[in-house]
TrEMBL record:
Name this polypeptide is given: 4-cresol dehydrogenase (Hydroxylating)
Source superkingdom: Bacteria
Keyword Ribonucleoprotein among UniProt keywords: no
Domain FAD-binding PCMH-type: 38-228
Record keywords: FAD, Flavoprotein, Oxidoreductase
Any one Gene Ontology molecular-function term assigned to this protein's record: 4-cresol dehydrogenase (hydroxylating) activity
Amino acid sequence: MMDLEGFLKSVGEKIGAQWVDTRHETLARYGEHTLPAEARAPSAVVFPSSTAEVQEIVLAANEYHVALFPVSTGNNIGLGSRAPARAGQVVVDLGHRMNRILEVNEETCYAELQPGVSFTMLHDELERRGGKLMLSATSGPPHGGVMGNAMDRGAGYGPYFDHFGMLCGMEVVLGNGDVIRTGDGSLDSEELVNWHVSKFSFGPALDGLFSQSNYGIVTRVGVWLMPRPPAARSFHFTFPDDEDIAEIIELCRPMKLSNFVPSLFRVANDLYAIAPDEVSAEYAPGVKNAISKEGRLALQKRHGLGAWQVSGMFYGASDAAIEPLIQRVRGHFERSGKARYISHDEAQNISALKVAIDSMTGRPSASELGMLKWRPGSGNAWFLPGTPMVGAQALELDRVGRGIYEKHGMDYIVMHVASARFARGLHVLSWNKDDADENRRADACYRELSTEFAKRGVGVGRAPADYYDFHMDQMLPSLKKVYSSLKRALDPNAVISPGKYGIDGEQ
């Protein structure tokens, strides 16, 4: 039986009572999010300063049967922010006091970080050191956590886009209170010269168990960094018609299969590109229609953009060395007869394209957060499916998605992040969270999107907290059984984030 009072007293004695917060205003703030459901306030927030203090919190949670919900910086906007998976869980705010860059190694190009290190903090430290190294930035909140984004399998757009794949060596407090290190940090030694340069050591590789799971609390990681090249030049194309997505995917695929283009392709539709800088002129309270085709065309004309914008980047020794690469990719895309080229220099003055340049050169930017103002009320959720890099399949899913958005009166805002064989679709839902009917329609839209895409063999890569159980119910029963078995083995009392990603520990 849960003994919250006993837990808080015990934790206060271990980490200091001033780091245990039960004030109403604090709980309300931590319970807020941008999703359709009601706020989920925690019962308390605790602020550890070290792995040892996290371990004490987990041991106390086991003793007093209290559910914890760890967050790093709590800026997972559109996916749950820092609200717990279930109301009443105790938020363990790792970022408030555990926010140190423990090491930057400029020889083998990595940094060792605590959970509270944000993209901006790491970028600024690398610049302070002379800018020899660059991180992989998202286009999301620059104050978001590097580690938290990677553990939830977020991504960037440059060559080091795979943020979880670029982690090497973790320190983890398991749900049972044990502390482990992964990779070559698993040696029973304090001389860990390979911890953040060699992912794999003796025995099974465990790192993946702690991504999008609730088996432990990661308190320290190594993250690989890219040497900053002497020059970087972007290229951009606009396409005029919605149906051009099929041709765009066909054009991008060979460029990535050969790795001729080292960055990912950002393939953003008109509203994804424009919404950060605009407020919907057609929105009014009670309106249940998506923006009109005429309204979209007017926005495209005003911003000098198209139905789709394609962005990528080359890196090299000099601008002159990169120019032939730009010309080759330009010739490839312009053969379509529909692509309009926008140069790197021109794009610097177009905010929708400048954000692509910033993210691909490791510079955090808050530009895309402007989408929260597209409609009032700051309702925001992300539907994150994917598609093979096959034009016909991309077009089919695009038509399905557009139809569902329109049915529920939502504006179709999407960007595809395209690699060689697969593109992740960043489908944005933006609505007035202060309007009960819009909340209902946003929720119905998300559920229908997920259901219809799943029917076509397409699942999601990440999920908003409101839909953890919904997506877990789409998984194989045998897989769910494995997840539950791992939960019972590593967190036998299910004290860490029960319900996160639909994992409880029950059979």
